[in-house]
Amino acid sequence: MTLIFLYGTLRHDALRKIVLGEDAPAHKALLPGHGVFHAGQAAFPMIAEASGAAQGLAVEASKAAVARMDYYEGAFGYDRRPALIEVDGERRDAEIYWPQTPPERGAAWSLEGWAATLGDLATETAHEAMWGFGRLSPADLAANFTMMMRRADSRLRRRASPGPVTRRSDLGRDDVNVEDSNRWLSFFAFEENRLRHRRFDGSMSDTVTRAGLHGCDAAIVLPYDPVRDRVLLVEQFRYAPFLMGDPRPWCLEPPAGLVDPGEAPEDAARRELAEEAGVTAQRLEPVARCYPSPGALAEYQHIFVGITDLPDRAEGFGGLAEEYEDIRIHILPFAELERLIETGEAAVGPLILAAMWLKLHRDRLRSA
After folding, report:
1. Angstrom distances, CA of residue 12 to CA of 60, 154, 217
2. How many folded domains does the chain comprise?
3. Residue 289: inside a domain, yes or no?
4. Is residue 201 part of a domain?
5. Is residue 322 annotated as a catalytic residue, yes or no?
6. 206-236 burial, b for 16+ CB within 10 Å, e for fewer?
7. What phi-psi label fits residue 229: left (phi over 0), alpha (psi between -120 and 50 degrees) or beta?
8. Rounded distance between C-alpha atoms, residue 104 and residue 267, angstroms
9. Residues in a beta bridge with 346
10. Which domain CATH number covers 36?
11. How far is residue 179 from each of residues 21, 134, 165, measured CA to CA in Å?
12. Catalytic residue (choose from 104, 323, 342, 345)
């Protein structure tokens, strides 16, 4: 067994159990001459020399648990170093996770403050992160961690806001029995399960294989100028049409992007509108919240029409270079958008849905 002094997020009981893979014995402990601070502007902490003593937990971890912690902490740039701690007034040799390249020391860090805002998200993310133990390197985990957080945030949002049950059956997740699971991780995650599910007659189905792509929540906003009766579309290369063999894999679509962890979909819509098109929405009109392709795509879309001002000068190019975006901006009359949908030149589902909604509400928006 190895005695590890934990001073940061792994003091959170639920997170620690997932990361260690066991319920290791833990005791209150102190690290004299040190304090716990934010690692620069990050939400997670670092240890640094300071007056007083850093509060933490002394955890008796098995060899397997230490290996799991090395993987998890290594993704954030931390490794183990020896330390002399106090447990029940007794000095004991232990090890702590120390930043390999200490960032600028931020404000004092609080476990309670972190847990209140990020505890559930970190715990949910850890399930996928620790699935990668033995499959991913710490560097691979670091590269994929933001997308893991987005997926975790989406799962938490779905659980907190389940859809109503009025017409559909009241079957739930307890009516699905997963027998075997496999997963491949990249920017997205691909998961394949062998499972059985409840049938409408009450029996369980035979074992079936189902596969799907793990996305996350996405915000989509169609900018509309009710004074000039025109919309804004962006055009960019899209990989999925390319995979389908489409001779023209550049698509016309509304500005869109992924919802960041802890971000409201409305805020994500406004952010993407500014980043991709350089315009600001005066207000957002909700169109739909939906699964675009529930048979195989685990993504949830928040679709809006953004009321804005679209003068001629708004045309041009947009996007963020650091995200490898190459975007052309089109401003066109609403009637032309209808024509593009009819001819099939505008063939993106959320755009068609937003345009149909706009056709129904256009007179109201223009009169307002």
Report:
1. 16, 22, 26
2. 2
3. yes
4. no
5. no
6. eeeeeebebbbbbbbbbbbbbeeebbbbbeb
7. left
8. 29
9. none
10. 3.10.490.10
11. 21, 21, 27
12. 323
Q: Is residue 162 part of a domain?
A: no
What CA–CA distance (Å, rounded) separates 165 from 264?
24
Q: What is the mean pLDDT of each run of 10 residues along the chain (368 residues)?
A: 94 96 92 92 89 92 96 94 91 93 89 95 96 94 94 94 89 94 86 95 96 94 97 94 92 96 95 92 96 93 96 67 76 96 95 97 94
Both 222 and 344 in one domain: the answer is: yes
Show Cβ contacts of residue 295 under 8 Å, excluding neighbours closer than 6 positions. 212
pLDDT for residue 332:
95
Domain boundary among 116, 132, 162: 116
Distance (Å, whole) CA 252 – CA 51 = 59
Find where tokens 């025109």 sit: 230
Per-residue confidence (pLDDT) for residue 322, from 0 to 100: 61
Our CA dihedral for 238, 147, 108, 4, rounded to 10 degrees, sits at -150
Q: Could you list the residue range(s) of the whole structural domain that residue 23 is in?
A: 2-116
Other CB atoms within a 10 A radius of the CB of residue 331 amount to: 21
Does some domain include residue 146? no
Enter the pTM of the model.
0.88
Token pair belonging to 300:
């949830």
**DSSP 8-class letter at 136:** B
Q: Write the single-letter amino acid at 213.
A: L
Helices 111-131, 13-20: axis angle to 10 degrees equals 20
Amino acid (one-letter) located at 115: A
Express each pLDDT in 58-91 by its tens digit: 999 999 999 999 999 999 999 999 999 999 889 9
What distance in Å separates the CA atoms of residue 51 and residue 317, rounded to the nearest whole number?
A: 54
Domain end residue (candidates: 116, 139, 158): 116
Q: Of 259, 230, 256, 262, nearest to 319 (Cα)?
A: 256
Question: Tokens 């809006």 appear where?
Answer: 304
